[in-house]
Structure formats: structure tokens, C-alpha cells
């Protein structure tokens, strides 16, 4: 009987990871030691700073920055977290209307300037709506996962005693990137009107899925156990299939072809915003083990 290889893994609980984490889909050659973290982004720093995991989800901006600074990580052609992002920036209607046309001179809150949701929303505001983001002050609450990255001069750190949503509701911010943390509060409106229709228009123009967290593996795992990497990819696909998602547009793409438009746009937006400083070719984010999967 072949001895199994155990890999350390960072995956939070989502419909697409449920079968993987529960063992409903399993393998004769690989076992997982899953991180106990309930929120995956809490594991991103140790992933890129210490290579604390063999495999896991990683924010696409964090991954691009990690590769730029020489971290030995490569993509698997699969995403486990994705969505359209147009609804993720809000303003307090009691403080006046905020639209994409009048963001210059405003102060906007975001968890971190390098946050992937922030990257997508800024890219949408700039490229779909022509917003002048260079004249925005970005108020942030966390540093970058990759320590070499330095924020641009129009990014400032919020007081430690303040919270993003509280500052927005108290009028200390003109808008904020809230994403999944958008509270059910009648005072809040989306900066982008009719975000669902706007997202469909953006998708029709770009063909891109604005996914947040692709699956990443260490170069060492691909070198030492390429058969395990292929098996992990199979399990990720089967776990997603077991979720039986009913999305009209698949926001968790699998395969290089399905991911390419989103990867190309993430690179373009990140370059525009100074999050990375060279234009990657999509293929160089993979290696010879991972690029031909699927």
C-alpha cells in the first residue's frame, strides 16, 4: 500500500471546499492537514512570508506581489472565491450622494490598500467609469501581506481605535470598501448605481471573472510531488462539482482558459494602481507541472 503524502493546507469553509474539507472527496495518495483558521486572509501573511502551507487559497493581489518579490509559489488553475465586485463600495446617504464621477478629493476606507476587493473596485471605477483615483485619499487599517510592498503616498493609516464601517456611518469617510461585510443598514447605498447591471455590462466588455482567491501551491511541492499536485487539483474540481452551484455566470473558474481574462485584468489593474511594478505574462504565474492541468 502506497504511503500517503500529507500536505498542510489553507482553505476556509465555502460551498466549493465543503466536500474537500469533510473528506467526502478523498485520495489514495494525499491527506490534508487543514489550517484551523476560520478566515483565510488571516493565513495569508504566514503563507507568503514563511511558506507556512503547501497549498491553499491566496488573494490574487497577494500572490502577484509575492511572485514579484521572489516567493516560490505557483498557481493552480482554479479559484475558490470569486464574485462580481461592483456592489462592494458604499456611501452614507445621510452625508450626501457619492457617485463614481465625484470621487476626486474624497477619503475612502479600505481594509488594506493591497486588498483584492479594493484592487478590483478601483480598477472598475477607473476603467469603466473614468474616475480620477489619484486624487483620492485611501484610509487603510492593515499593512500588506508581502512586507516589501510600500503603499503610495495617498494612502494613510487609520487610528487603531476606529472601525471601517463606524467611520463611514459617523461621516469620517466619504465611502468605504465593505464587500461581504456590508451591513443591512438603510443609510448605506452603493457608489455604483445598479451594481448588478453594471457588473453584467463590465463582464460583457471584458469577459473577465473578478475572482478573489485562486489556489496556490509551493514550487517545492510541484518539484517533489508533482503527482500530489495533480491529485489536489482533481480534488478541488470534484469538491466544486459536489457543491452543485447554480450560478448563471461561474465566478469560481477552473482551467487556464476560464481564468485567463481575469488574470490578465488583475495584472493590468494591479499595474495601474502601483500594486505591482512589472507586467506579468499569465503563463509565468504557473510552472510546467500546473499549467497543463485541466
Structure description:
The relative contact order is 0.21. Helix content is 33%, strand content 18%. The model has no long low-confidence stretch (mean pLDDT 95). The chain has a 6-stranded mixed β-sheet with strand order 8-7-6-9-5-10. Strands 2-1-3-11-4 form a 5-stranded mixed β-sheet, with helices on both faces. It is globular. The protein starts with a strand and ends in a 22-residue tail after the last helix. By secondary structure, it is α/β, with parallel strands linked by helices. The protein folds into 2 domains: 5-83 and 210-285, 3-Layer(aba) Sandwich (D-Maltodextrin-Binding Protein, domain 2), CATH 3.40.190.10; 86-206, Periplasmic binding protein-like II (D-Maltodextrin-Binding Protein, domain 2), CATH 3.40.190.10.
Helix content: 25-40%
Q: Please tell me what the overall shape is.
A: globular
Q: What class do helices, strands and sheet pairing give?
A: alpha/beta
Strand content: 15-25%
CATH architecture designation of the largest domain = 3-Layer(aba) Sandwich
The number of distinct helices, counting runs of at least 4 residues, comes to 9
Any idea of the CATH topology of the largest domain? Answer: D-Maltodextrin-Binding Protein, domain 2
Order of neighbouring strands in the sheet with most strands: 8-7-6-9-5-10
What is the mean pLDDT? 95
Concise summary:
The protein has 294 residues and is α/β, with parallel strands linked by helices. It has helices at residues 15-22, 44-50, 60-68, 116-129, 164-169, 195-206, 219-224, 226-243, 256-272; strands at 5-10, 30-34, 55-57, 73-82, 89-92, 107-110, 137-140, 155-157, 175-177, 188-190, 211-218.
Amino acid at each position: 500500500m502506497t504511503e500517503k503524502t500529507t500536505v498542510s493546507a489553507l482553505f476556509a469553509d465555502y460551498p466549493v471546499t465543503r466536500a474537500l474539507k469533510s473528506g467526502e472527496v478523498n485520495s489514495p495518495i494525499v491527506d490534508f492537514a487543514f489550517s484551523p483558521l476560520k478566515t483565510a486572509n488571516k493565513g495569508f501573511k504566514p503563507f507568503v512570508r514563511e511558506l507556512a502551507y503547501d497549498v491553499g487559497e491566496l488573494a490574487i493581489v497577494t500572490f502577484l506581489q509575492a511572485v514579484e518579490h521572489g516567493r516560490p509559489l505557483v498557481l493552480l488553475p482554479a479559484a475558490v472565491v470569486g464574485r462580481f465586485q461592483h456592489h462592494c463600495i458604499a456611501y452614507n446617504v445621510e452625508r450626501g450622494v457619492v457617485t463614481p464621477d465625484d470621487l476626486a478629493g474624497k477619503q475612502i476606507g479600505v481594509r488594506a490598500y493591497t486588498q483584492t476587493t479594493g484592487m478590483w473596485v478601483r480598477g472598475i471605477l477607473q476603467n469603466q467609469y473614468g474616475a480620477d483615483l489619484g486624487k483620492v485619499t485611501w484610509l487603510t487599517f492593515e499593512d500588506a501581506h508581502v512586507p516589501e510592498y510600500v503603499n503610495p503616498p495617498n494612502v494613510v493609516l487609520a487610528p487603531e481605535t476606529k472601525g471601517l464601517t463606524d467611520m463611514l456611518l459617523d461621516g469620517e469617510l466619504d465611502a468605504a470598501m465593505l464587500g461581504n461585510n456590508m451591513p443591512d443598514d438603510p443609510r448605506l447605498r452603493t457608489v455604483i448605481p445598479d451594481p448588478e447591471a453594471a457588473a453584467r455590462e463590465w463582464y460583457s466588455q471584458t469577459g473577465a471573472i473578478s475572482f478573489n482567491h485562486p489556489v496556490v501551491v509551493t514550487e517545492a511541492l510541484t518539484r517533489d510531488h508533482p503527482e500530489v499536485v495533480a491529485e489536489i487539483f482533481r480534488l478541488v474540481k470534484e469538491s466544486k462539482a459536489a457543491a452543485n452551484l447554480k450560478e448563471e455566470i461561474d465566478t469560481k473558474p477552473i482551467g487556464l482558459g476560464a481564468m485567463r481574462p481575469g488574470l490578465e485584468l488583475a495584472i493590468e489593474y494591479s499595474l495601474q494602481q502601483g500594486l505591482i511594478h512589472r507586467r506579468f505574462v499569465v503563463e509565468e504565474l504557473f510552472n510546467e507541472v500546473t499549467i497543463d492541468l485541466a
